[in-house]
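[Q] Does anyone have a clean structure-token version of this?
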Amino acid sequence: MSTPDHPIWREQCDAARSIKERFGTQKALGYLIGEKLLNYLRAANARPDLAAELPSFVAEIRAIFEPYELHAYLSGVRRLGALGHVMGDEQFAEFRGAGAVAEDIVTAAEDVLYVERIKGLLLDRR
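[A] Here you go.
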């Protein structure tokens, strides 16, 4: 449960550490960046309290993953959200073909912008 002393992103970072250990770096990156950080950024646009916590969340993500892991993930991200890290390409294509995945061009464009923002936050661009 999120409290001012223990924001939800801390629990999500702890979960990502467990996912990394049990299922590998890619799954953990998809969970924490492609799902949780993305959702956090969307919510932070309307909530100043979340926006104020963003630098701490980003610092914790950078502590969990090596720079090369972040770079590799963000250079090759194909899908965002929960389906982005729980399904393989074949499964996703099957779900998409069956109409189980909602697609909308506006959300897709927003996602591209969010990925660029995430890159700016997580990658050392000197």
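[Q] Thanks! Anything notable?
[A] The radius of gyration is 15 Å.
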